[in-house]
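Dear Dr. L.,

I hope this message finds you well. Following up on our conversation about the binding site, I have prepared a predicted three-dimensional model of the protein together with flavin-adenine dinucleotide. For your records, I am including the exact sequence and ligand specification that went into the calculation, followed by the structure tokens. Please feel free to forward this to your student if that is useful.
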Amino acid sequence: MEKSQGVPEAQTIGVFNPLRQPAKPQEYYESIKRKFAEERDLRLRYRPEGTAQYTSELTGALAKYEGDPYGGEIKPREPINDTVECLFVGGGFSALLTSARLREYGVESIRIVERGADVGGTWYWNRYPGVACDVPSYDYLPLLDEMDYVPKNRYAKGEEIYAHCQAIARKYDLYELAVFQTTVTSTVWDEGEQMWHLTTDRGDHMKARFVICANGTLSKPKLAKIKGMESFKGHSFHTSRWDYAYTKEDLSGLEDKVVGIIGTGATAIQAIPGLGAMSKELYVFQRTPSSIDIRDDWYTDPNWARKLQPGWQSKRRARALAEPQLTDEQKAKLAAMSREEKIRRQENANIDHMMRIHQRIDEIVKDKATAQALKPWYMFMCKRPCFHDEYLPTFNRPNVHLIDTKGKGITQITEKGPVFEGKQYELDVLIYATGFEVQKTGIYNQIKGKLGLDLNDKYADGIRTLVGIHSQGYPNLFIMGGYQASFQFNLTDMLQTQGDHIAACIDYARRHGYQSIDATAEAEEWWVQEVIKHRGKTTRNHDCTPGYYNFEGESNRRQDGNYNGGFRQYFTHMRDVRAKMEEHFVFTRK
Ligand SMILES: Cc1cc2nc3c(=O)[nH]c(=O)nc-3n(C[C@H](O)[C@H](O)[C@H](O)COP(=O)(O)OP(=O)(O)OC[C@H]3O[C@@H](n4cnc5c(N)ncnc54)[C@H](O)[C@@H]3O)c2cc1C
Ligand SMILES: NC(=O)c1ccc[n+]([C@@H]2O[C@H](COP(=O)([O-])OP(=O)(O)OC[C@H]3O[C@@H](n4cnc5c(N)ncnc54)[C@H](OP(=O)(O)O)[C@@H]3O)[C@@H](O)[C@H]2O)c1
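The resulting structure of the complex is given below.
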């Protein structure tokens, strides 16, 4: 069916075509930009502390928010004292797709160490009602060619994605050496031995020649620091640790409950329709609305799936990542346009898009004040865009109440529930949809390299890597999903690219009889400057409403973000690095 093959809308996001003629006079766009700036400033005034408004140190009374509700009893076992060749910290897609490549290179000794009780990462932890990918599954689920699998829906549900992770682990024999319900707490390089020593919270002491930090971009739950939150006497949990024992699988446990949810990001958007349908009353505490576009999910057409030829996903991926083909006339027009004009036109197209999102809200949400409150006032892609067809209609239900905090957020919780503008909201259950610590390397885990320096101390004055993957002084350590890598709306495209690169580096070292590979100081410095150069090119980060994409509005984080030179450029740089391995790396032999 033609539909299943369409260019995924999500992947064209952000590429607003400067050749498009603006639909309205320039003053119209300028007035909307002024409103965007006012809304951003309002939020920055409410929380000048930036990222410090959150905590992911979930200890003491907050420890319950990151316990594992799915894994069951922790099975007793003897501490492990052994050596493997490749060790992954974390068992999500990063670990799985890189392992698949390593197997293709003939690497036999691969171990995953994972906090959860199985592989899956994001898809192990996030089981909230409505969880699904927001990138078409034919692109998002990795290794579909290798697994000979076609997802059931355009947007696969969490359960199917989790099952896909398990199937990958089975196919590539990754369960054999895997260690679950185990957290790596330290990863220390032994220069004499040229090996990594890892310790865990289960008393293990493992050694590995290569370590891949696959700890996830969004895997450690975070909570907004809200006065009195520990005093709440009702039930509460974080969305990534959904308490089905309380809500029941079908959420029928909420039929007589007054439920509150804090946050309206991508997670809340997916969870709220189910909560609205099943709770006695639902209070949605909103600080900033998300942009909600049409989702248009469908079952995969079996006829289309049957006709797919081997290698279809790789070809689809190559097509999606190919340079857009322009006619000579289009090229000439673009060449004649100044940079300022291009940016202006892209911004105007972006605003037109956001106004279509506003219009959709007016068409769906019946109460005018609620519709108004649900309108996002920022450029598209300042926050992760959301796609949903049931979220907006949920606000037409009589039992669903939007508490719009107009940028301020909930700042107080009592034993009964949240308070806003002097009004107490009495709840039975409070759900935190407040997101995750973002793209940090070494969570729960202290990584010490050649000089005994903690990686995060090395980063104290700014992250330093080569292509976001290698950091000088940390030989045989590879980072996935960290900063200084490219941003991709479909994250698995990026992770696959990194996995291919890492597997190729490991293969190179093995084939040449090298014990270790470490980035040179020059190569690292080149990349840091490349990241800084591209991050300084536009004022977009500064202009956006605060969120995790722009470090909650902290404007001084230039080298700590993603590489903004574009995915194709990132990909090309990685290929160039691999083409001149001896120039970019120092190798040692045992
Ligand atoms: C709800 C949700 C939906 C998402 N949907 C999409 C989507 O539609 N499209 C998209 O492109 N991206 C999406 N993402 C981003 C998603 O995280 C990535 O696409 C991808 O799954 C990340 O894989 P990963 O292996 O890098 O990390 P993860 O899947 O996060 O796995 C990392 C694992 O490492 C483990 N770990 C961390 N530290 C340690 C340690 N010290 N010791 C042992 N184990 C450790 C964690 O427990 C975790 O299981 C979504 C994220 C979330 C939270
Ligand atoms: N496949 C998918 O569709 C999907 C689903 C879920 C998650 N994800 C991924 O995971 C990322 C994280 O999503 P997430 O929704 O879990 O987290 P998030 O995007 O970080 O959202 C956190 C939410 O909490 C709100 N918040 C924080 N403090 C608050 C307070 N004191 N009072 C009221 N609201 C408060 C934030 O408001 P502000 O906006 O004002 O900061 C925001 O709406 C997404 O961006 C996406 O990449 C994808």
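In brief: Confidence is low (pLDDT under 50) at residues 1-14.

With kind regards,
A. P.
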